Amino acid sequence: RSTDVILLQETHGDLEHVLTFLPELAREVHVGCSSAAPFTAGGVVTLLSRKWIGGDCAVDHTVAVEGRVLRTCISGGSHSLVLWNIHNHELDGIATQVVEDLLGRDLATAARLPLESMVVCGGDFNYVSFGEATLRPEDVAAAAAGAGAARPELVLPLQHFWTRVFRSCFEISCDAPSHFSAASNAFNRIDK
User: Contact, 61 vs 48, CB < 8 A?
Assistant: First the structure.
């Protein structure tokens, strides 16, 4: 209740599912959702505190890519904040072109009007940034014992795309790993 913006990925449902699961939610937050049936994978939800937004601002949720990318614009007067909630998984060439065009326009507006417009992107990007390594418990144990070194990461699909899109942005990420994969027994910072 003390958080103003929450970006969720892998929600596996539509707006009706979200509101059924958390019925009191709509009274306290604006809810935006991008989903794709059959809801077995994907889905992104953006939650915005109504108290934080206030009554003077308009909120517009736009599905950029079904089940994967949601654009939310909060505007008041001549000022705007555009939030991009992204789950970078199984995006194809058409979807990436749509995102690059729309996000490119938002970033260009923010660059042209820095005191009036701001863009924030967040989500699960499913790749480790260039120069970083995934943290695996067995690697930590080997390094502590004086053997082994970090394994180089593979360049994953769309990693170059996102690097190009964000080349003029600040990246903010936590120092500690933000994601754990049981399948690979690895910790990393693929959430940005």
Answer: no
